[in-house]
Automatic annotation (TrEMBL):
SUPFAM superfamilies: Tryptophan synthase beta subunit-like PLP-dependent enzymes (SSF53686). Coiled coil: none annotated. Gene3D superfamilies: 3.40.50.1100. Keywords: Lyase, Pyridoxal phosphate. Belongs to the serine/threonine dehydratase family. This is L-serine ammonia-lyase. It comes from Biomphalaria glabrata.
Length: 362
């Protein structure tokens, strides 16, 4: 028997007593009251220890045991809180973080705003003019100052970097920082403690590469170097695939995918280096927007969770039975289990899901 932490009350309980999301409604997880406490800046972690649960529906559909690392249950809605809160807390430990600046209307901005509020640090999020108003409203819920600047993201990023040059200020990038990767590695360390045996494969989405870098580091920490990673992108946001084909980091001309939170024009050089090292081996795969959106819709029906297409890209590997294709192509050997990183995404709603279904004729 192994113990798993309840997401809400932090009590330990036998894993077999935790509900499987394929069999019970998520309300079963909410039967205990949340324990609310403010972590100290240099002490307690700000992110939650999220559960690994076996998906009955996905396991039946795929013919293997499918486990879900549910980082969509982080307070701001995505895995980004792990790395970004870790970055900010390490900066606090060195005494150089009186104000946080971040250019993101997506999950990185939400994570920076949430972590800053919990730590009592002023936070300014710079948004380009194209950002929907509801995103600014969500950021303000975390007491962030929201400034609108520039027609595109790069212009907002330039201002955030300029403002962060003030003494005591910290610029928080979306993914390109070693402290962020170190924070993301914690999800694999948790998963290794929560699972009775290592999975045959780990499936994750790739945007700029911060999550993938953290996963590689975590797998090296827990001795999973021989477990392959399937790293998934969508067409039109496939900077990792482009870098692999070119043998070096390249810039996409534009992001044309609906998976905007995968939308980095270039991948982290470290991600490409990890691919070349193959320790663990990384298999890249590109799915269509329709594949990713379809997976989001099916996942909402199966598990009552709303996730973004950036997360749906990983789920599409299961729903699209792509693992079987990779085995046929000799890219994977026979597998019995998969760990899917459900990275989440705060920028989704039932209204957005319905619009996707209409746009993609689902």
């Amino acid at each position: 028997m192994f113990l798993q932490t309840c997401l809400f009350c932090r009590d330990k309980m036998p894993s077999h007593e935790l509900p499987c999301l394929g069999d019970a409604n998520i309300n079963a997880l909410q039967s205990c009251q949340p324990l609310m406490k403010t972590p100290s800046p240099a002490g307690n972690k700000l992110y939650s220890e999220t559960p690994v649960l076996c998906s009955t529906s996905l396991s039946k559909y795929s013919g293997i045991q499918v486990y879900l690392k549910l980082d969509n249950l982080q307070p701001p809605g995505s895995f980004k809180l792990r790395g970004i809160s870790h970055l900010i807390q390490k900066a606090l430990e060195t005494g150089r973080c009186d104000h946080v600046y971040c250019a993101s209307g997506g999950n990185a901005g939400m994570a920076a705003a949430y972590a800053s509020r919990e730590l009592g640090i002023p936070c300014t999020i710079i948004l380009p003019k194209t950002t929907p108003a509801f995103l600014a409203d969500r950021l303000k819920l975390y007491n962030a100052e929201v400034r609108v600047h520039g027609e595109v993201y790069d212009e907002a990023k330039t201002l955030a970097q300029e403002l962060s040059k003030q003494t005591g200020s910290l610029y928080v990038p979306a993914f390109e920082h070693p402290d962020i990767w170190e924070g993301h590695a914690s999800m694999i360390v948790e998963a290794a403690q929560q699972m009775q045996e290592r999975p045959s494969v780990v499936i994750t989405s790739v945007g700029g590469g911060g999550l993938c870098n953290g996963i590689v580091q975590g797998m090296r920490q827990v001795g999973w170097e021989n477990v392959p990673i399937v790293a998934v992108e969508t067409q039109g946001a496939d900077c990792f695939d482009a870098a692999i084909k070119a043998g070096e980091v390249v810039n996409l001309e534009a992001i044309t995918s609906v998976a905007k939170t995968l939308g980095s024009l270039s991948v982290s050089p470290t991600t490409l280096e990890y691919y070349k090292q193959a320790n663990p081996p990384i298999i890249n795969y590109v799915v269509t927007d329709q594949d990713a959106v379809s997976a989001c819709v099916k996942f909402a029906d199966d598990h009552r969770f709303l996730v973004e297409p950036a997360c749906g890209a990983s789920l599409a590997i299961i729903y699209g039975k792509i693992l079987h294709r990779l085995i046929e192509e000799k890219k994977l050997t026979s597998i019995t289990s998969a760990l899917v990183i459900v990275c989440g995404g705060a920028i989704v709603s039932t209204e957005v899901i319905q619009s996707w279904k209409k746009d993609f004729h689902l």
